[in-house]
Fold this sequence. Notes:
This protein is an alpha/beta fold and 555 residues long. It has a 5-stranded mixed sheet with strand order 4-3-5-6-7, with helices on both faces. Strands 2-1-11-10 form a 4-stranded mixed sheet, with helices on both faces. It has a 4-stranded antiparallel sheet with strand order 18-19-21-22, with no helix packed on it.
Amino acid sequence: MIYNSDSVNKIIEESIKHNWDLPALSDYKGITLYxxxxxxxxxxxxxxxxxxxxxxxxxxxxCSRNQANWAVVFLACLTYGAVPVPIxxxxxxxxxxxxxxxxxxxxxxAGSAILEGVTLTHMPKLSATILLDDFSLVQTKDTNGYKxxxxxxxxxxxxxxxxxxxxxxxxxxxxxxDELAMINYTxxxxxxxxxxxxxxxxxxxxxxxAAEVMPQVKDGSxxxxxxxTAHMYGMMFEFLYEFCVGAHVHFLTRVPSPSVxxxxxxxxxxxxxxxxxxxxxKIYKNRLQPFLKTPGVRFLLRLPIADKKIxxxxxxxxxxxxxxxxxxxxxxxxxxxxxxxxxxxSIGFRYTVGYGMTECAPIIAYADxxxxxxxSCGKAAPRMEIRIDSDDPMKIPGEIHVKGDNTMLxxxxxxxxxxxxxxxxxxxxTGDLGLVDSxxxxxxxxxxxxxxLGPSGQNIYPEEIESVINNMPxxxxxxxxxDDGKLVALIYPDIESxxxxxxxxxxxxxxxxxxxxxxxNEEMPNYSKISDVRIxxxxxxxxxxxxxxxxxxxx
Length: 555
């Protein structure tokens, strides 16, 4: 239950007070923090931030794998009035350093694996670096930081001389709806980095949206956090909303394999499941399709009575594999496979497909599983509007424009990109193409932004990879696409130059391109590595602006 609908920080405060003795955050197979424990840790972090001179609006970078302490620091930043800057732990060290510097972060909370890779002297603006695993101080430019950490319990006792209770908590409200709450970077590399400035109104609107569509998630409910907490989708709907209503969040602290996910679901029995399409599609392809293609099952599926019985059995088995107690599986982050969509709908599986983006923190469109339409990603979410930039929005695809509380303020220190992202009449350009039907349901027809969703919810921007590939020997141009969950590089080679250098057959050229990819992959995080190379026999088809028509090759 949401106890205050006007302020994010007051919602957090009231949730802690009302759920004081309930479990709040757990590392799967590890520690569990109760709401009272989270409150105590927040209070101690506030003391440290104050001692090292952090002021309202100062930026604080957070980078580690999913864990309870990540959530504690994020909450501490918001309730202090600082601006958290979540960074995907899978970014390369140079990319992490770039974001810390670009965001003007003063404090850096990082996991041990992150600190082993980065060079602190490359981030000269930092006032202090703190190990997220145990909150130990790694370095600080201010002697007050060392004193605060050494005497933290003493300082805590002075601040709360009698005892630390529910009534001890009083978080300051955000100063306005448009106050900057957080910055979420869409990419790690300097050439493509965009720091999305998310205001408090967007976080509040998304929390209220979740409360309106997921009332079954409440105090005592279990939820499993699979997606990266540094990713807006996972952060909002697998952690922040749940904390605001007193639920118990279980973080899978390592990269979750399908077997680990299934085991966690069976043990924890989550009330709601947030997923990216790849997870559901893998279950469909690897577990269900082989069964459905067996001769006996194919025969029975043609018989009306047997067909219904088999589909009911499949639905029951699938539901149990997700813990059996969820109200709904919400799929988002990328387009959902049409065959899988149709099949899951036909068996009555409780799922729906939504639409959102970091720039909307993240929700744009949604429909409950009972009201969804196959192929659609729902209708405009509460406090949001959608329009299609087309002469006939029901028949001719156009760019999807959105307006409402969820939209960003703009891109940090990038006025040009901010200006290009909004129309003259104030609508935000999504860069995606779509249609709407007569009932207001949205259908995505193309993603002009070309973003690919990684296996754990990471945003992969193919242009970044292509810019590296195009600098490789004998490459004229390239296109990175997704195929069966893997990244594939389509390359149009410089045949003339290759032949002049003795590469006289297609096999020799392909072998050279695979050597090139090995070099490219050394520069990429694991989720952005190229798995296969295909040689294109002719130049890619282009638009009048000489941009490659990506949708032709992705399909």
